[in-house]
From TrEMBL:
The gene is gluQRS. Catalyzes the tRNA-independent activation of glutamate in presence of ATP and the subsequent transfer of glutamate onto a tRNA(Asp). Glutamate is transferred on the 2-amino-5-(4,5-dihydroxy-2-cyclopenten-1-yl) moiety of the queuosine in the wobble position of the QUC anticodon. A motif ('KMSKS' region) lies at residues 260-264. Its cofactor is Zn(2+). L-glutamate binds at residues 27-31, 63, 204, 222. Binds 1 zinc ion per subunit. ATP binds at residue 263. Belongs to the class-I aminoacyl-tRNA synthetase family. GluQ subfamily. Transmembrane segments: none annotated. It comes from Curvibacter microcysteis. This is Glutamyl-Q tRNA(Asp) synthetase. The keyword Transcription does not apply. SUPFAM superfamilies: Nucleotidylyl transferase. A motif ('HIGH' region) lies at residues 30-40. Zn(2+) binds at residues 119, 121, 145, 149.
Length: 320
C-alpha cells in the first residue's frame, strides 16, 4: 500500500512571514537602461513612502548586470532625477556590476549542495524537446524547461546554470500587501530556471536575492509586473538560507494601448528639472498610487511629507 503522505498532491508552501523584530529596510532598484519614466517613478515613490511609514531606511541599488541593455550614463541621470524629486537614499547607492564575486559565491553554494546544475541546452534544444513531448505554449509565454540536463551533460559543455526545482517544495504561497494571497507552482509553471546565462551574465533572480540579503532588505515594494518573479526568489532565498522579505506590488502605469510603460517600448523620460516639473512628476506618480494631490504644497519635499500619513492609511505597518 502506498504511503498516504507520498500519494497526496504537493501542497503550496507558505513563505515565512518577515520577522516583526527586523528593522525595516526598503530599496529601489532601477536598471540603467534609460531615464526614469512615469512607471518607474511610481515604484520609487511607493518604496520611499513605505520606508518612511515604517520609520525605516530606504536604499538605492543600480541593477546594471546586463550591459547590452544598459545606457552609458543612465545611472547618473537616474540619480539626478531622484535627487530632483527629493527621493534621497539613506546610504550610498550600490552597483550590481561591482558584486560579481558575491553572485559566484552563491552559485557555488548551490552547486555544492546539489541544488543547481550546469545546462548545455540551447533555446532550440529546449523548443525541440518540448515539441517532441507534445507540449505547446502560448505566444510570449516562456518555455518551461524540460529538465534535459538534470541527470548530467552527457559529454557536452555547460552553457548556463539552473536551479533544481522539486515539485514537492516548489509550490509557493505568499501574501502580497496589496494583491492579497498569491501562489505559484514554480516546477510546473517555470521549471528549473537560469541562475547564470549562456553569455556569462548573471540572471536577475540570483543577483536580486543575493543583494537584497546583503543589504538587509526586509520589505520589497515594486511594480506588479515583477510579482511573477516572487515565487522563484522565495525558492532561492530558502535554498541559500536567506531571510524572506515582505512584498508589496504597486499598480502599473499603462500607455494608450493598455501596455505597461517601459523604456524598452519607448516610454518617455519624466521631466524633473526644476521644482515645478519635479512636483508635477511626483503628483502624477502619487495619483497613480491613489494618494491625494490637492493642496498647497510647493516643493517635492513638502509633497512627500504630506503623503506619508496618506500612505500609512492605505498600507500601514500592520499590513506587513
Amino acid at each position: 500500500m502506498p504511503d498516504e503522505l507520498s500519494s497526496r498532491p504537493p501542497q503550496p508552501i507558505a513563505a515565512e512571514a518577515p520577522a516583526l523584530a527586523r528593522p525595516y529596510i526598503g530599496r529601489f532598484a532601477p536598471s540603467p537602461t534609460g531615464p526614469l519614466h512615469a512607471g518607474s517613478l511610481v515604484a520609487a515613490l511607493a518604496s520611499w513612502l513605505d520606508a518612511r511609514a515604517h520609520q525605516g531606511q530606504w536604499l538605492l541599488r543600480i541593477e546594471d548586470i546586463d550591459p547590452p541593455r544598459c545606457q552609458v550614463g543612465a545611472d547618473r541621470v537616474l540619480l539626478k532625477q531622484l535627487q530632483d524629486c527629493a527621493l534621497l537614499p539613506d546610504a550610498p547607492p550600490v552597483w550590481q556590476s561591482q558584486r560579481h564575486a558575491h553572485y559566484d559565491q552563491a552559485l557555488q553554494q548551490l552547486l555544492k549542495g546539489g541544488l543547481a546544475y550546469g545546462c548545455a541546452c540551447t533555446r532550440k534544444d529546449i523548443e525541440d524537446a518540448l515539441a517532441a513531448s507534445g507540449q505547446t505554449r502560448a505566444r510570449h509565454q516562456a518555455a518551461v524547461y524540460p529538465g534535459t540536463c538534470r541527470q548530467g551533460l552527457k559529454g557536452r559543455a555547460a552553457r548556463a546554470w539552473r536551479l533544481r526545482t522539486d515539485p514537492h517544495t516548489s509550490q509557493i504561497a505568499w501574501q502580497d500587501r496589496r494583491l492579497g494571497a498569491q501562489q505559484q507552482d514554480v516546477a510546473a509553471e517555470v521549471g528549473d530556471f537560469v541562475l547564470r546565462r549562456a553569455d556569462g551574465l548573471w540572471a536577475y533572480q540570483l543577483a536580486v536575492v543575493v543583494d537584497d540579503a546583503a543589504q538587509g532588505v526586509s520589505h520589497i515594494v515594486r511594480g506588479a509586473d515583477l510579482c511573477d518573479n516572487t515565487a522563484r526568489q522565495i525558492l532561492l532565498q530558502r535554498a541559500l538560507g536567506l531571510p524572506i522579505p515582505g512584498y508589496l506590488h504597486t499598480p502599473l502605469v499603462l500607455d494608450a494601448r493598455g501596455d505597461k510603460l517601459s523604456k524598452q517600448h519607448g516610454a518617455p523620460a519624466v521631466p524633473t528639472e526644476g521644482t515645478p516639473a519635479a512636483s508635477a512628476a511626483l503628483c502624477a506618480a502619487a495619483s497613480a498610487l491613489g494618494l491625494p494631490v490637492e493642496g498647497s504644497a510647493r516643493t517635492p519635499a513638502e509633497w512627500l511629507q504630506r503623503w506619508v500619513p496618506a500612505w500609512q492609511a492605505l498600507y500601514s505597518p500592520r499590513h506587513g
